[in-house]
Design a protein that fits this description.
Helix content: 25-40%
Number of strands: 11
Structural class: alpha/beta
Strand content: 15-25%
Bound molecules: iron/sulfur cluster
Low-confidence stretches: none
CATH architecture: Alpha-Beta Horseshoe
Distance between the termini: 42 Å
CATH topology: pyruvate-formate lyase- activating enzyme
Number of domains: 1
CATH class: Alpha Beta
Radius of gyration: 18 Å
Largest sheet: 8 strands, mixed
């Protein structure tokens, strides 16, 4: 793993494409991801983005944007004004192409610095997205921020299988990530489980019932088809993920599987599909909490 400190030119990126539905801005404290060689890195859509990788092997590099918090404070007023004028408010997706709580965060605390900067000047809406239980290092700071902006904690859990055949282990076990969701929900935060990309499921009824009892606000279901930045999932089809999924549940590699699972999930929780779900738009057979 190569780790470099860099000076970024900007930190609040105005969204376009898939993310435009989700938020006005994305914020990535790092370039690259220390979890890139774990299970989630296999189907990670970022690995195919040459603008981000610069031709480097995914999971083998992390650039640390050392001036991230400083840049945030320098540009937040301008970006907030722009978003409130041209978009549906100032919302930040943190993060879209890296994990804010990857291993190097414990050393450099860039994400923590950004959360502190947001205490000074918060967005209207903040979506925190992670695969990692290291987010608990910042539990109190996040709870404090949720008192001054509309904040959701999104934890990627993919489904009820901790491992898929032929793939490396996840960055953090399924049970650890479930624990993170429960801790945030118990403390009154909006906690959302993101099945993204949706893995084949062993017992969806039991799983969604469990998520509901944990007090989660919603679940987001996103298939690699339409979810990897291509309409037909062609980026992911080049990886080992579809084969691993098909070995567990053959039909899980079809988009219709997403809708099949969503129908079950709606019996227990509000459900958001793909980009609309990440944006916080849910439907349910129950009252939305
Ligand atoms: S944690 Fe997120 S950004 Fe990092 S490799 Fe996994 S899916 Fe990609």
């Amino acid at each position: 793993m190569r780790v470099d400190a860099i000076q970024a030119r900007s930190i609040l990126t105005r969204t376009s494409g898939y993310l435009k539905t989700v938020s006005s801005h994305s914020l990535n404290p790092y370039v690259g991801c220390g979890f890139g060689r774990s299970a989630c890195g296999e189907g990670c859509y970022v690995r195919f983005n040459p603008w981000i990788t610069g031709g480097r092997e995914w999971g083998r590099f992390v650039d640390i944007k050392t001036n991230a918090a400083e840049l945030y404070l320098q540009t937040v007023a301008r970006e907030k004004k722009w978003a409130q004028k041209t978009r549906d408010g100032f919302s930040i997706f943190f993060s879209s192409s890296t994990d804010p709580w990857q291993p190097v965060e414990r050393k450099v605390r860039l994400t923590r610095q950004l959360l502190m900067a947001m205490q000074e000047s918060p967005p209207d809406q903040l979506i925190l997205q992670t695969h990692s239980s290291l987010i608990l290092d910042d539990l109190e700071s996040i709870l404090s921020l949720s008192g001054i902006c509309n904040l959701r904690v999104h934890v990627s859990i993919e489904g009820d299988c901790d491992r898929l055949p032929g793939l490396p282990p996840p960055p953090c076990s399924l049970e650890e990530r479930m624990k993170v969701l429960k801790i945030f929900a118990d403390r009154g935060a909006k906690a959302v489980a993101c099945l993204s990309p949706l893995y084949p499921m062993k017992a969806p009824d039991a799983f969604f019932s469990r998520l509901s009892k944990m007090g989660l606000s919603a679940v987001v279901i996103d298939h690699f088809i339409q979810g990897d930045g291509t309409r037909d999932g062609s980026r992911t089809l080049k990886t080992r993920l579809p084969d691993a999924m098909a070995r567990v549940v053959p039909e899980s590699i079809d988009l219709s599987y997403r809708d099949q699972v969503a129908r079950i999930a709606r019996k227990y929780l509000p459900v958001g599909i793909s980009a609309f779900g990440f944006a916080g738009h849910y439907s349910s057979n129950l009252d939305i909490r």
